[in-house]
Amino acid sequence: MTEADLYLSYKGMLLPKAVHTPESLRHFEEFAFRSDDVVIVTYPKSGTTWMQEIVPLVLSGGDPASVETLHNWDRVPWLEETRAPVLNLEDRPSPRMFTTHFHHDMMPASFFTAKPKVIYVMRNPKDVFTSFFHYHGMVSFLVDPNPQSEFLHKFLDGKVIFGTWFDHVKSWLSVDERQRILHISYEDRIVCAQQDLKDAVRKIAQFLEKPLDAEAIERIAHRCLFKNMKKNKMSNYSLVPLDIMDQTKSEFFRKGVVGDWKNQLTVAEAEYFDAVYKEKMKDVKYTFPWD
Ligand code: A3P
């Protein structure tokens, strides 16, 4: 199926019709934030699911109840998606947790007055592309990413869902409110050793003003390791029917590593990617771990 069959256009951004409707988008626009809400913001494939595990664990002081009983999409729901209007989010007790893939300037009016806390997760765009490519290959409501070279051009031109990675990252990096926005990268924090993960948990707990003892930090970090999260049925999308997500083609928890783009892009594709990156990011004064 083509983009026209599968996607709608919202404020110049393509979105999958299967999970975004005029009603869910209206609900998003009218959503009333509270100042003690926590919002996870990502470009897709940048570590959203990881953060949807870690934030509830941090806020509950390490109690695994919510990550063991609630799907990640209900636990930390996407505000722009069709589930949001049916979850009675208005009635949830504080601190509420949400996710969005939208740009900063697309946030509803209440976001700018209530000023909730934001955790913005970034990942090397070449690894994002790689993960995105495999994800598109297994999800029935997204376009077929083949041939790869064509999909790469679409990705770099923003003719994919949620627009370009460049616009997304620039939009959220332009917000310089340290008290309120934590910028964190997949490469710094997630992948490798448990020590990195403990540092990440500590940093997130500090940002969310939730004091945790060493034992709780250790427990949360252990749960959020790739190999452990991959086993959590409430986070690994294994309960999504095969005709929507065919994980026999590619698992949602695919590799969870840094630098897999080297196995995905040809030398010419990587060089082209670097040239576009250089041009689009030339005015950005931020040191990314992959630079
Ligand atoms: P790969 O496809 O490269 O393996 P998102 O949650 O934003 O959709 O991102 C999904 C990507 O994050 C996938 O990347 C997935 O494997 C990876 N991921 C999810 N949880 C992770 C974790 N705890 N540690 C490392 N990577 C994780």
Kindly provide the name of the CATH class of the domain at 3-124 and 161-240: Alpha Beta
Stretches where pLDDT falls below 50 for ≥5 residues?
Answer: none
Return the CATH architecture of the domain at 3-124 and 161-240. Answer: 3-Layer(aba) Sandwich
Could you please say which CATH topology of the domain at 3-124 and 161-240 applies here? Rossmann fold
CATH superfamily of the domain at 3-124 and 161-240: P-loop containing nucleotide triphosphate hydrolases
Mean pLDDT: 95
How many DSSP helices? 14
The set of bound ligands, ions and cofactors reads: adenosine-3'-5'-diphosphate
Q: How would you spell out the order of helices and strands? A: HEEHEHHHEHEHHHEHHHHH
- End-to-end separation: 36 Å
Give me the count of strands.
Answer: 6
Shape: globular
Helix fraction by DSSP (H/I, runs of at least 4): 40-55%
Largest sheet: 4 strands, parallel
Q: Rg, please? A: 18 Å
Strand content: 5-15%
Question: Could you explain the architecture of this structure?
Answer:
The protein has 291 residues and is α/β, with parallel strands linked by helices. The chain has a domain at 3-124 and 161-240: P-loop containing nucleotide triphosphate hydrolases (Rossmann fold, 3-Layer(aba) Sandwich), CATH 3.40.50.300. It has helices at 3-6, 22-29, 48-59, 65-69, 72-75, 109-114, 125-138, 148-157, 165-173, 186-189, 194-207, 214-223, 226-229, 267-280, and strands spanning 7-10, 13-16, 38-42, 97-100, 117-122, 181-185. A 4-stranded parallel beta sheet has the order 4-3-5-6, with helices on both faces. A two-stranded antiparallel ribbon has the order 1-2. A hairpin with a 2-residue loop joins strand 1 (7-10) and strand 2 (13-16). Helix 11 (194-207) crosses helix 12 (214-223). 35% of the residues are buried. The model has no long low-confidence stretch (mean pLDDT 95).
